[in-house]
Design goal:
41% helix; alpha/beta; 5 strands; 201 residues
């Protein structure tokens, strides 16, 4: 059993780099408690930027949708309050982590979140040998499906949470049911891929 709450987070954005001015357009957060999903938060954000056609086609998020959305000052504060001091998980976590810190910094929002835990790195160790560790590929290998459109925050966060839960099940078997939490996950993703699961026994 998982001893800590985990919050699985996904951002959709205007581009790849907050350092060059890209902003968050949508966020979703899914809370995992004791091996099950117990809560979900999602919101679009009015990022104040013009969306490139590629981004509109990729995400399905239109200019009208962001223009009529709540301001980042509201959404990011709601998100930080929801996260509290719980561990945050994201797929390719460095991307979401950078955008989270950037948005908080822009708004002078205080947060005390540790670096995000990467679900891709968890999956590489629990399921070595997959052809790809894109979220959709991992999910397909596990028999999981999107509950909505891919590259929308809610669908991506929910699917990531389901992948994480499957990974935790495998880890729990190796630990013979001994509870573990965020600290164990952080140590786990730093282990060599080849023998990470063996270290849990």
């Amino acid at each position: 059993m998982l001893s800590d709450d985990l919050v699985v987070l996904d951002f959709e954005t205007t581009g790849l780099s907050p350092e060059t001015g890209d902003r968050v357009t949508e966020v979703a957060a899914v809370r995992i408690r004791k091996d099950r999903i117990v809560d979900q938060y999602e919101s679009l954000l009015n990022c104040g930027k013009k969306l490139e056609p590629f981004i509109v086609n990729f995400t399905g998020i239109t200019q009208d949708m962001v223009d009529s959305a709540p301001p980042p000052s509201q959404v990011i504060r709601e998100l930080v309050k929801l996260l509290g001091k719980d561990a945050v998980v994201a797929h390719n976590a460095s991307f979401d982590d950078r955008f989270f810190r950037s948005e908080c910094g822009r708004l002078s929002v205080q947060e005390s979140i540790d670096p995000f835990i990467c679900s891709m790195r968890i999956a590489r160790r629990v399921y070595p040998g997959l052809e790809s560790y894109k979220l959709s590929n991992i999910a397909e290998s596990l028999g999981l499906e999107y509950s909505g459109r891919a590259h929308r925050a809610a669908a991506d966060a929910r699917l990531t949470a389901e992948v994480v839960l499957k990974s935790l099940e495998e880890m729990k078997v190796r630990r013979r049911g001994v509870p573990f939490g965020a600290t164990t996950l952080r140590r786990f993703i730093e282990l060599p891929i080849s023998n990470a699961m063996a270290t849990l026994a």
